[in-house]
Structures are given as structure tokens and as C-alpha cells.
Amino acid sequence: MTGPTLQPDVLVVGAGPVGLTAALALRAYGLPVTVLEAGPEGRQRPGSRAIFTHSQTLQILDRISPGLGAELYRHGVYWNTQRTFHGGREVYAKTYPDPPADVYPHFTSLPQVQIEAYLYARALAAGVTFAWDQEVAQVDATDDGVVVTTAAGRRWEAPYVVGADGSRSVVRKQVGARMEGTRDEGWYVVVDVAEKDEPTLPRERHFHYAHPAVDGRNVLIVPFAGGYRVDLQLVDGDDPEELASPAGVREWLDAVLPPGYAERTTWVSTYQFLQLVAHDFADPHRRVLLVGEAAHLFAPFGARGLNSGVPDAEAAAIAVAAASRASGAAARAPVEAFALARRSAALFNRDAAGEALAHLRPDAATAERIAAAAERAPDDRSASEWLEKAPYGPRGVHRAETVYRY
Ligand SMILES: Cc1cc2nc3c(=O)[nH]c(=O)nc-3n(C[C@H](O)[C@H](O)[C@H](O)COP(=O)(O)OP(=O)(O)OC[C@H]3O[C@@H](n4cnc5c(N)ncnc54)[C@H](O)[C@@H]3O)c2cc1C
Fold first, then answer.
1. 335 lines ligand 1 (CB under 6 A)
2. Which residues form the FAD-binding domain (predicted)?
3. What is the dihedral angle through the alpha carbons of 278, 357, 187, 13, rounded to the nearest 10 degrees?
4. pLDDT band at residue 322, thresholds of 50, 70 and 90?
5. CA-closest residue to ligand 1 atom 27
6. Statement to judge: residues 59 and 125 lie in one domain
7. Residue 373 — φ and ψ, nearest 5°?
8. Which of 22, 68, 201, 277 lies at a C-alpha separation of 20 to 30 Å from 296?
9. What is the pLDDT of residues 265-320, one digit of tens each?
10. Cβ neighbour number for residue 77 with a 10 Å cutoff
């Protein structure tokens, strides 16, 4: 007697937030999934990183794992007051009304490590298999499937592979996808500080142009569950290593935060604005799909990293589910559609991040415009709103996100 034919697992490479989302979404479509992760089981990843989770992201997570978005929302913090300063003077302030109890507000804010913990717990409960210490080194795709080989020589076979192995993606390189775009020369130092038992910082988002306490550098302060993230924008001639050193951080952080926060620093990192998008989001055989930072790298301003990786992951799962039900040339179509739609969304995000950058590292004309707007604000509402919104680039999401439904 023969039993039912076992369907081979779809492989997801990378157990970051986007890989975990892809695994959950694939399970939601009934597909068996194994996640191959280079890191060890129980690893602790550092830093707040993708704190700002949009309501659309929460909705997608609810779709693929009912109640997950709500769980993240309950754990995160929401602030409804935003302030912008120029040279220490307030040029914009807005307090939004509290959202209705049954609707997500625009966002919730919690550290990426906690988002990953919720995703991981859901993935285990959904029956995802995890294989840790599996550093993928080689990916060979054909029209019939994919063979993945790890650095230790272990071989895995799969009908489809979702590459979610982050910014230095081996999967991307193996399938011949090229990153296209630019890296800006400017540097930022990012620091997490833990909340005090008796907080002295308001739970508000503050953006400072030309903060007078740090020689006119720009500073962004954003709350998240358990603390605050502070971004310092360096100016030409600054040494990122010096300003990210324990003594350097202490000095500038003490200047921009109330006393007692600098010694509560839990994470320090530096970054540059990258605006890179893979030339193709799938391999030529349409068996390997790239998602998250394996496919695109954006500047943190505007919170487009995780918030675009989650729709990538859902779209990849929808495409794999549809392709798995088809055969021959028809199986290519859903993957084609995924690659086109998500690349187009990534180009939109890359350009939006580019607009933010043009504002944060202004040419002479934009610098003059910022100074003139700061003179007129807050009495001139349009100048005030422009100063508030421009550092994050245009709002909104790429409309093609609703295109694929099979
Ligand atoms: C300072 C900073 C601030 C940020 N702020 C924000 C923000 O406010 N909002 C936002 O949306 N985003 C933000 N981001 C971006 C966000 O962190 C990323 O978008 C997110 O981590 C990408 O998730 P990912 O799953 O694609 O990749 P990753 O999180 O990098 O996960 C990739 C996984 O793949 C594994 N891996 C790598 N290579 C291999 C291999 N060869 N084989 C097997 N496994 C492998 C890695 O170990 C890792 O677990 C920020 C990033 C930084 C650095």
C-alpha cells in the first residue's frame, strides 16, 4: 500500500523578520516549510532597528496569522504627538486624536528583536521547521526545482526557495541578481537608551534640525516599547567611529537627552543611506524569490525596510502557492508577477528614501529653503508641515501591492 505523496518543503533562507513572515505566510497557504538559518538556535540579535511598524504591516500579519498584528500592537507603544525643532525653536507640533478602540493607529513601535520573537513563536506553532547553523553557500536552480548547499556541505532540495538572507544575501548573488542604486557618503550614529523607572522624556517623536547642543547636527528621537532610539546625523568631517565610541556617545547624548539617559545606552551602531534594489527579484528559472533586504536596501528614515519586507514575504508566499498548483510555463507566471510587482514597489520606496535624503543632506538651494521655512514656521502652516514631513520622504505605499491574488 502506498501512502500519500509527501510534498517537499519550500525552503526559506534566513530567519530574520522577513524570512519568518514568509514562512508563516507559506504555512497560511498550506505549504510545508523549512527555514535554513546561518545563526545558532537561541541567538540574541542586537538593537531596536525596525521599530516603526505601520498599520498596513500589522494588517498583513493578522491575515497570515490571525491576531499577530494585534499582539504586536498591544506590546508596542503609540505616540500621538510629533514635534519638529529648528535651531532649538519649535517649528511644528501636532497631537493627533486617540484612534478608535477597534482600529489600528498609523503605527506601533517596538524593537525588532521583539517583533522577531513574536513571529518565531507563531512560526513554530504553525508547524514551520527550523534548521539552525545552516549557512547557505550555493544555490542551483533549474526549471524543475532548486538545490541548496550549505558551507558545511549539506544538500537541501526544494521546489521553491525564498531568499530572505538579508543585506549581504548569498542567495541573491548565487542567482545572479545585481543591486542597482547608490550609497550616500553621509553617516548617522544610532543609539538605543532604556526607559527610566520614572521617565523624564516625553513619549513623543522629536526631530531637530540644527540642534544647538550638538553644533547644529540633526537629531531624531523616537520612542519604542522599553526605551528611545536616538539618531545623530553627522556632518562632513565628523569621524563616525569617534562619535560612536563610548565617550563620544556619552558626550553628545548627554547634550540632547535629560540627565541619566546616556548611562542607559543599550545599543550603538552607525549607518549610511543605501538606496539599492535588485535588478530582478527572482532567478531566471522562476524558482527562487528574493524578499526583504536580500532584494532591497533603503535608508531607515521613513521606516521602509521591514514595512516593505513584510508585503514582499506575503507576495512571495502567494506566488509560490499559485505556482505549486500549476505546471510548466503556467507555473512561471505567478513568480513573474511577484518579481515585477515587488520590484516596482521597491523602486517607489527607493525614490521616496532618495527624496528624504535630498532634504537631510541638502544642496545649497534646499538648505536655503529649509532656513527660509524655519523663519516662517510655525505661523506659516505649509512651511511648518514641510519641515515636519520632508525628512521621511513621501508618504504612502505602492499601489501595485494589491495586484496579485490567484
Ligand atoms: C540602524 C538600523 C535602523 C533601522 N530602522 C528601521 C526602521 O525604523 N524601520 C524599518 O522598517 N526598518 C529599519 N531597519 C531595517 C530593518 O532592520 C531591516 O529591514 C530588516 O532587518 C530586514 O529584515 P530581513 O529579514 O530582510 O533581513 P535580516 O534581518 O538581515 O535577516 C537575515 C537573516 O538571514 C540570515 N542569513 C544571512 N546569510 C545567511 C546565509 N548565507 N544562510 C542562511 N542564513 C543567512 C541572518 O543570520 C539573518 O537571520 C533598520 C536597520 C538598521 C541597521
1. no
2. 9-327
3. -30
4. very high
5. 166
6. yes
7. -65, -40
8. 68
9. 999 999 988 899 999 999 999 999 999 999 999 887 778 889 999 999 999 999 99
10. 17
As a whole number of angstroms, the distance between CA 163 and CA 168 comes to 11
- Ligand 1 in reach of 387 Cβ (< 6 A): no
CATH, residue 211: 3.30.9.10
Q: How far is the CA of 83 from the centre of ligand 1 (A)?
A: 29
Neighbours of 10 (CB within 10 A): 27
Q: Is 56 in the pocket of ligand 1 (CB under 6 A)?
A: no
Q: Do 139 and 24 sit in the same domain of this protein?
A: yes
Per the CB < 8 A criterion, the answer to whether 310 and 345 are in contact is no
**238 within a domain of the structure (yes/no):** yes
The residues facing 193 across adjacent strands are 228, 265
Is 132 in contact with 259 (CB distance < 8 Å)?
no
Report the Cα–Cα distance between both ends of the chain, in Å, rounded.
35
**pLDDT for the residue 184:** 86
- Among 293, 298, 342, residue to substitute to test ligand 1 (most atoms within 8 Å of Cβ): 293
309 within ligand 1 shell (Cβ under 6 A): yes
Counting from 1 in the atom list of ligand 1, the atom nearest the Cα of 170 is: 41
Domain range enclosing 234: 184-273
Instruction: Tell me which of 220, 247, 273 is where a domain ends.
Output: 273
Q: What is the pLDDT of residues 42-74, one digit of tens each?
A: 998 989 999 999 999 999 999 999 999 999 999
Residues 32 and 169 both lie in one domain: yes
Give yes or no: residues 60 and 18 share one domain: yes
Q: Are residues 55 and 129 in the same domain?
A: yes
- The protein residue whose alpha carbon is closest to atom 4 in ligand 1 is 49
Task: Answer whether residue 92 is part of any domain.
Answer: no
Number of domains observed in the structure of the chain: 3
User: Which pLDDT value is given to residue 6?
Assistant: 59
Q: Are residue 24 and residue 108 in the same domain, yes or no?
A: yes
Residue 90 is assigned to a structural domain of this protein: no
Instruction: Return mean pLDDT, the chain.
Output: 92
Query: 307 CB under 6 A from ligand 1?
Result: yes
Distance 16 CA to ligand 1 centre (A): 6
Domain boundary among 273, 289, 322: 273
Do both 338 and 200 map to the same domain?
no
CB of 111 closer than 6 A to ligand 1? no
CA 332 to CA 310: how far, in whole Å?
A: 22
Tell me whether residue 93 is in a domain: no
β pairing state of 288-290 and 161-163: parallel
